[in-house]
Amino acid sequence: MPLYHTLGKIPHKRHTQFRKPDGSLYSEQLFGTIGFDGMYSNMYHEHRPTMVKEIRNQYSVAPKIAVENNIKSYRLKGFQVKPEDDYLDSRKAVLTNSDCTIILAAPRHSIKEYFYKNTDADELLFVHKGTGKLRTQLGNLDFKYGDYLVIPRGMIYQIDFDTEDNRLFIVESRSPIYTPKRYRNHFGQLLEHSPFCERDIRRPYELETHKELGDFLLKVKKKDEIIEMVYAAHPFDVVGYDGYNYPYAFSIHDFEPITGRVHQPPPVHQTFETNAFVVCSFCPRLYDYHPESIPAPYNHSNIDSDEVLYYVDGDFMSRNDIEEGHISLHPAGIPHGPHPGAVERSIGKKGSDELAVMVDTFKPLMVTEEGLALSDGTYHTSWLDHD
Ligand SMILES: [Fe+2]
User: Fold this and answer.
1) Among the four 29, 91, 231, 310, which has the fewest Cβ within 10 Å?
2) Pick from 272, 301, 277: which is nearest to 363 by CA?
3) If we measure between CA atoms, which residue out of 165, 141, 116, 205 comes closest to residue 325?
4) Residue 265 Cα, ligand 1 centroid: separation in angstroms?
5) Residue pLDDT, tens place only, 154-176
6) How far is the CA of 298 from the centre of ligand 1 (A)?
7) Global pTM exceeds 0.90
8) pLDDT(387) > 70
9) 185: CA distance to ligand 1 center in Å?
10) What's the CA angle centered on 267, arms 2 and 197, to 5 degrees?
11) How far is the CA of 12 from the centre of ligand 1 (A)?
């Protein structure tokens, strides 16, 4: 996140002696991305962060591909994903390519017995149902319905859920997730025309510092495998840090929609960008106010991107028969557009209460076995007229 942040105790200068009350040194760790060119934080540990005791199991969690070369539109009924007790077990990859994986999860239980770290990808967790606390080595973030949680790769975390009724829409990104560059000035500050500003970005506020030694299980995701490692020190043993690389939260309800006299294109909804896909937020908003405007979108061709919409709440005006938790996939190469009747239905309407998250990928997505199991099988013909 291009915002400087600091929590806890740090020394006056980086890479200098920083001592505990007993005179011994804290362990400094530089935590950054893109070699030494990306955003980074400097953190100070009670113990060396390198104390591996044991490497136990290693097993694949690679998505199982069902449709590799896809040109069919799909509707996936996301709430049919069955809740599972364990957070990692609950994560079901439904769409994937070499840049990103789209996951649905309905975890029942908090992560208590282990810590988790994804070294493959930044993670974007969208909270559809549930409240709780994301606990990380760089501080904690409370979350609730509508929150995006951005967790940079390599961040060790646990999640505390308040109840067992949780639904997450997750995007794993193999390149860093940023806010759109066009909304930032030369200094990184969000510009006046940005649909959100720094006040909407929630940074970690509560640093947990555990000093104990023992056996601490860390499940590390690397190259689509989970590797179980046992460390000798508690992973949350940071006494302080500063920098730009840390988890943060942003609520979709804090996104201020950009509207116009005629239909505005999807980039006005953009919330995050990577070099391989964008994420947009469709929020309740006033409709176009030209006297002859058509608020429903025109037919459009995603010649070079696949479009994934995750429907969160409200009545989605351009689709018939779409419910919360559904995903629509409109693949690159063929046009898609409003369902029959949606254009006429939209004329004269003053506003929309739709809430949805869109992921547009520049490379085609493959449908996994778990994704295909959620498909109704008929969506690709849903633009035909039916008597
Ligand atoms: Fe579209």
Assistant:
1) 29
2) 277
3) 165
4) 9
5) 999 999 999 999 999 999 999 99
6) 9
7) yes
8) no
9) 29
10) 35
11) 51
